[in-house]
Amino acid sequence: MPRKASRTASRxxxxxxxRWFQFLESQSAQDIALPVSVxxxxxxxxxxxxxxxxxxxxxxxxxDYEAQRHWMEITTHLPVSQWYSYDxxxxxxDYPPLTAFQSWLCGAxxxxxxxxxxxxxxxxxxxxxxxxxxxxxTAIALEFIIYVPAIVLFFRSQHTKMSxxxxxxxxxxxxxxxxxxxxxxGHFQYNSVMLGFLVWTVYFAAQESYILMAVSFCCSFMFKxxxxxxxxxxxxxxxxxxxxxxxxxxxxxxxxxxxxxxxGVMLGPWITSVDQLQQILVRVFxxxxxxxxDKVANVWCAVNVAVKLRSLFxxxxxxxxxxxxxxxxxxxxxxxxxxxxRRQTRTMQPTAIRVFKYCLVNTSLAFFLFSFQVxxxxxxxxxxxxxxxxxxxxxxxxxxxxxALFSLYPLLYxxxxxxxxxxxxxxxxxxxxxxxxxxxxxxxxCVMVLQWTSMLVMLALHTAHAFVPPPSSLxxxxxxxxxxxxxxxxxxxxxxxxxRQFTCLQVQPTLKQKKD
Length: 516
Known about the structure:
Shape: globular
Largest sheet: none
Distance between the termini: 25 Å
Radius of gyration: 23 Å
Structural class: mainly alpha
Mean pLDDT: 90
Helix content: 55-70%
């Protein structure tokens, strides 16, 4: 039965996505809102999947799509002892064991449908229409099993003081976030699994289910090692909980057992062989690959434009430099989180969770900007917890998504995904009225000016890339400009989110209450 519209309806909004849900509320059609949002998100993902992907038609190695398909091939046909050592020159497995198990599961389904899709060695470079449909379907299925339910539950439970419209807007906006859609369903990866476990981690933290929180976080970094970007924040949060509780030692022991058991189960097939465990470690943390790959919008790649760090320092020195820089960038945020949780009272629980979300953004963004061996796709890691702040930091998150999407353009351009890129960029701008103009609180004029300036810079670089050929002496000039600009913006976002974390205890957010 449809629910009655609330007596105090939400005020008219200039943001299109809010107007849609206000209309449903006015028609007492709230029950169809979530199904429509989920089905629309599904449709968008499937449409993006109709376009190209990483390495399409580019032998001999192809790209990330072939890597994911090949891992299904080797995990299905080879014993576990060979998963991390088989033909490493052709997309050797280099993600943690949970990714290997996911590849095995998808490979088992593929074998049942059509074994030729993952025939050992013989299927290399396979690009048949049916196999591509299957691969796209696995990415969607895993996202809707792990990531989507976590998003829905998080916003439904954490934001109980928000209006129905505000909750639906948050869910719809996060599900339509363009960066994750274009990377997972265009370029092709399974980042939504790792990020889904991160959202479950925050959800369990808000529910004070700390054992489940630890287990879900272990699943995140055991699926992709980039999940460790969140480790300092999660560690500070859980350690503070142990200190503030009367029986904190018991909780500490339970958390330790949960972590060891979860990681131990996932490493179980290799646990008896030190050599195999070392091989997994070498594959998962490839120090030999260098400070960064390709052109990524982090500090080291941007600095390299003027100072050739890899020529001045050896690999070990760069590892130490990046480690120290990363630690200096995230430690203040984690210390603040730790002492906030230690002083926490029952009434402060929502504020503590808010500080935790800020800390997740700050630590992961610090890792993206300063850590060793970063990929351009890793911007998805800080973007995920930032989206959980989409109500408190409306204009900042909208802007962050815009810049993150722009930073991915060189990668998406190589994949031939220019049309999906522009469609998703325009869709996000339209739905969120970017530059943001929230209805419940005016955006500062200086922010509006900076946002418009930022958009004009990105449009100018796009226009130049499309119509002005680069000089022969600087063939990568537009990619380099993209890196420098986005890196500067990400550093600014890191400073801003740190400022917001340290001041959020003094200035409470303007929540969109039911009394709106």
